[in-house]
Design a protein that fits this description.
alpha/beta, 15% strand, globular, binds phosphoenolpyruvate, binds magnesium ion
Length: 772
């Protein structure tokens, strides 16, 4: 037997692949380090190699870091760092190929690491660990005997790397996330991130503050403070605990006053955790045993964070941020910081995944803006941020992860720029802009009522409302009613279903506050990117093509009927309009209308006051609805075009996917022609028509819409004044010619050129989306 001469020391590749069982070791290991260490031991054993190492890539620092090793000096783990392209390991990584080297020292790639003891090893085999196209790291075996590894060994090691890639990637992300340097580095430490980052604007506006990154481990809040800065007596802890409880209760009360539609119990989990003896009691115990209060807080918070974030129950995972909120408040309060900063005042939230309820809580606790990834500007997270007036910038996920923690930034979500640690000069310039923004937000007042084009055509500009707190601002900004009430927002922000009675109060409030102006209620649009965390739902491979909107309602008739009853009751004494989202056929519409009829019947039977003659409408958001628009226009009492979805479904471009955001174009000839067809069908049947997607607020498209025959628009409240101005400056005759010209064009390029030409000729500004 030549066990030491490169002969395969195992039967076949399948056998070695059974090392994939290693992955299951992950669950059994006490820590990631333990898992990686066991992996190198087992691989070295199976490969009969003297040395086995795992290098994992740290994207932020662009270094391959030795994370586990058997055979070299153990002290080198975590110390050896290589640049991509550096040495044999770095080269295998950069070039994504296996390197099998007979005599390492003779290789042109060789770069010895002093102190590692690797000079003793001649044979070198390095295979990149890849997860899809993602580079995770490098798996290495070494042996003292030259030319020890065979091509079969290389194949076997590649198979192992492939099997372990997913688990290694998780390990890498977690280890990089928890890097000591990140946790302890002072806020001002230089980071490999550009001083100005460009992103996509989701909600315009300006904000300044320090970054807060919910996903980061908890110790980060201790950064910048010495142990001596923290009060150390048990009474100090008790005071912080009491203050935190009072603050949370106050927040809950204030929110219920300002936003009764979404406030219900939104801080209930916070209060429950605070009261839990295993939480505050555990902190007390540690303090009694001699641990300083700040350390006891962090210790217990981290335990809970680990517990919640590692849970398989999504409901529990969502509580992770609640625990961090508490930690943040307890520590701020312990430190005796100004009560104004116990929440997220002066903070901008940096996150890759936020739930609507998280956004609501951050907003309620004073956060100034959001820096997010993973959503498009028409995603519902962005729509909620807009309703809350939180300037929001969207960045690629990898970039979001590199935005440094607890660092001063200026978010210019008008220009799409994020300034990291801005200079005094930039701070001063933006200070003035912030003051002007504040004045405009609170001061601008626009008279309401219909608006006319320059040549006298009457147009209505209404508001899209998601939260009842937007009603008064929309009136102040000149909205002529509510063209779209997204009724699902109370459902997705809260922790439970709003009962019929509560829904009734919300809908009644909207009608009352609008004082007789038109209101279009839309029934629940759940599904897609809007999930109810508290409602057991099946996992769908394609939620946007699944049980969404009217399909969800027709599938859950109990929930649907409750909502319809609440709307019918609220509509008593008012004109009532109810529309159904994502209708795909006349049959869908008739089925939904049937549920309304049944509800009318039971309310009459029960003798409960209600609106007995509601008008029922269809949202046209699907190509199939456009295909039967003539029949829909005949059947329905009114129609509203939802371009956000119409573009998504006609062009097959996920509205939340930033990778393909350039393809998400409302100016696509197919969309323009569909809109014209809808407008013609509505005109023929004299069916009232409006347009409520975000495109209605695009000044470059407004002339086309008016030219194509649209007379009612519904836009986000803060866009109302701008849309009114755009209409007042428009002449309907050239707009009609412009629309005809566009409808004759089959190419996007030509359409965009004509849109630019018309905008420039009318003195408008070409938006970035149409430039070059
Ligand atoms: C739309 O799809 O255009 C629309 C207004 O509805 P939502 O954005 O809520 O899907
Ligand atoms: Mg829609």
């Amino acid at each position: 037997m030549f066990l030491g001469s490169g002969v395969m020391a195992y039967q076949n590749i399948e056998e070695i692949c059974s090392i994939a069982e290693l992955a299951s070791l992950f669950e059994r290991s006490g820590s990631i380090r333990e898992f990686l260490q066991t992996s190198v031991s087992v691989i070295a054993y199976h490969m009969r190699a003297a040395v086995c190492s795992i290098y994992l890539y740290d994207e932020q620092r662009q270094r391959l870091v030795l994370r586990a090793n058997q055979g070299l000096e153990s002290a080198m783990v975590g110390k050896i760092e290589l640049r991509p392209g550096e040495g044999i390991v770095g080269t295998a990584f950069r070039e994504m190929r296996t390197l099998r080297v007979a005599r390492a020292r003779e290789s042109s790639y060789y770069k010895p690491v002093p102190g590692s003891g690797e000079e003793r090893y001649e044979a070198f085999l390095a295979v990149p660990i890849m997860l899809g196209t993602e580079r995770v790291g490098v798996l290495v075996v070494q042996d003292p005997q030259a030319d020890y590894f065979t091509p079969n060994d290389a194949r076997a090691l590649k198979a192992i790397a492939a099997q372990l890639a997913g688990t290694m990637d998780n390990a890498r992300l977690l280890m990089n996330m928890g890097r000591e340097e990140i946790l302890r580095a002072p806020a001002s430490a230089a980071r490999p991130v550009a001083p100005v980052i460009q992103g996509e604007v989701a909600v315009p506006g300006i904000a300044s503050g320090r970054t807060f990154t919910p996903r980061k481990p908890y110790e980060s809040l201790l950064a910048g403070y010495a142990d001596a800065d923290w009060p150390s007596r048990p009474e100090d802890f008790e005071r912080a605990l009491a203050t935190t409880e009072q603050e949370i209760k106050k927040l809950q009360r204030e929110l219920e006053e300002k936003a009764s539609d979404v406030a219900s119990m939104i801080f209930s989990a916070h209060l429950m955790i605070l009261k839990d003896d295993a939480f505050s009691g555990a902190m007390r115990q540690l303090i009694t045993a001699g641990m300083p209060p700040h350390k006891a807080i962090v210790e217990v918070i981290n335990k809970y964070v680990r517990l919640f974030s590692g849970s398989t129950n999504p409901h529990l995972r969502e509580k992770t941020q609640d625990v961090k909120d508490l930690g943040h408040r307890l520590l701020s309060s312990l430190r005796g910081a100004d009560a104004q900063t116990h929440g997220y005042e002066d903070h901008l939230i940096v996150a890759t995944d936020l739930l609507p309820s998280d956004i609501m809580r951050f907003a309620a606790q004073g956060a100034g803006g959001l820096i997010l990834s993973g959503s498009g500007s028409t995603s519902h997270v962005a729509i909620l941020a807009r309703s809350l007036g939180l300037p929001t910038l969207l960045l690629d996920e990898a970039v979001v992860q590199r935005v440094p923690e607890d660092t001063p930034v200026i978010l210019d979500a008008n220009q799409g720029n994020l300034y990291i640690s801005p200079s005094a000069e930039i701070m001063e310039r933006y200070g003035e802009l912030l003051a002007a923004q504040q004045e405009m937000r609170t001061g601008e007042e626009v008279p309401g009522g219909p608006v006319r084009t320059a040549d006298g055509v009457e147009i209505r500009v209404m508001a899209n409302i998601n939260l009842i707190s937007e009603l008064q601002p929309s009136l102040r900004l000149g909205a002529d009613g509510v063209g779209l009430y997204r009724s699902e927002f109370p459902f997705i922000v809260r922790n439970d279903f709003p009962p019929e009675e509560e829904q009734y109060r919300i809908y009644r409030k909207i009608l009352s506050e609008m004082q007789g102006r038109e209101v279009l209620f839309r029934t629940l649009d759940i599904g897609g990117d809007k999930m109810l965390s508290y409602f057991p739902h099946v996992t769908e491979a394609n939620p946007f093509l699944g049980l969404r909107a009217i399909r969800f309602s027709l599938h859950h008739k109990g929930i649907f009927s409750e909502q319809i009853r609440a709307m019918l009751r609220a509509g008593h004494g008012f004109d009532l309009k109810i529309m159904f989202p994502l209708v795909s056929s006349v049959d869908d519409y008739l089925q939904a209308a049937g549920v309304v009829r049944e509800c009318l019947e039971t309310l009459r039977h029960e003798g409960i006051e209600h609106n007995a003659a509601p008008k029922l409408g269809v949202m046209v958001e699907l190509p199939s609805a456009v295909g039967v628009i003539e029949e829909l226009a005949r059947e329905a009492d009114f129609i509203s075009i939802g371009t956000n979805d119409l573009v998504q479904y006609m062009l097959a471009v996920d509205r939340t996917n930033r990778l393909i955001r350039d393809m998400y174009q409302c100016s696509h000839p197919a969309i323009l022609r569909a809109i014209r067809r809808i407008a013609d069908a509505a005109a023929r049947e004299s069916t009232p028509l409006s347009l409520c997607g975000d495109a209605a607020a695009d000044p470059v498209l407004i002339p086309f819409f008016v030219g194509a025959g649209l007379r009612t628009f519904s836009v986000a409240p803060y866009s109302v004044p701008m849309v009114r101005r755009a209409i007042q400056n428009l002449d309907s005759c050239p707009a009609r010619e412009h629309a005809e010209k566009l409808l004759g064009m089959g190419r996007l390029e030509h359409v965009n050129a004509e849109l630019s030409r018309f905008a420039a000729a009318s003195g408008g500004v070409t938006p970035p989306s149409l430039q070059g």
